[in-house]
Amino acid sequence: MPSRPGLLLYLPADWDADPPALAELRRHLSDEYGATLEICSTCDSPRGPAPLYTGAWRSWPGDEVRLFIQAAFFSLDWLEMEDVE
Questions:
Q1: What is the reported pLDDT for 62?
Q2: How far apart are the first and last CA of the chain?
Q3: How confident is the model at residue 82 (pLDDT cuts 50, 70, 90)?
Q4: What is the pLDDT of residue 44?
Q5: Average pLDDT score over residue span 66-83
Q6: In the chain, where are the structural domains located?
Q7: Dihedrals phi, psi of 53, to nearest 5 degrees
Q8: What is the DSSP string of 4-44?
C-alpha cells in the first residue's frame, strides 16, 4: 500500500514563518493532495526552504506548492542593522 504523501521542509534556522500563510500552505497540501507538512529546522542552512516530497503523490505539485512555501516563510538576512546608530 502506498504511503501518504508528505512534504518534509528543511528550513534554515534563521528563517521565520508567517502564521496565516503557513496555515494556508497546510490547508492546501491537505485539501489538494491529502499531504502532511513536517518542518525541520537545520543549521546546515540552504539559502531558503528546501522541500523534500515523500510518499505517493497522485500528481506532481511542482511550482504551485513552491509559491505557497515562498509566501509562508521569510528571512530578514537582507536587513543589516550594522549602520544604524
A1: 80
A2: 61
A3: low
A4: 73
A5: 81
A6: 6-75
A7: -85, 125
A8: PPEEEEEEETTEEE-HHHHHHHHHHIIIII--EEEEEEESS
